[in-house]
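Your task
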Amino acid sequence: MSRIPRYALAGVAAAALMGVASYLINEVWLGAAHDRHTFFRPDDHALRLPGLPITSLVWGVLLAVAYAQLGRRLPGRTAAIRGARFGALVFALLVGIHEVFYFQFIAMSPWLLVGGLLHYLVSYVGAGALVAVIVGDEAGGVARPHVA
């Protein structure tokens, strides 16, 4: 399979994982604490549906392309481990700190911050591992063995 279909497949897999993590953390665990904040758009708003799934798909594809260019160079015995590390780096450098930044300016429950951080950590570590396995480590998509 060539790179573009792999990136697309990885994007779909990452978006699905992000959607599941979002549902479990925001709806099941946080529930009412998540829903009572008025800065969230209603579920039927066009920017949430179909906007949110489209944005998640774009994030997934970008994660796949970035992994192929940068993440596959990280140490680790398997592609999944390298991908999880890459996802953790993306979370730490780009996403997690942004959640803390929002918390400083938006009046919200600390539980919402904890939930957001957990949601994105699980999403990016898990999506990184999925993307790495799907995209692979070489141009043809075959995972390379890691030599320490």
Remarks:
- DSSP finds five helices and no strands in the chain.
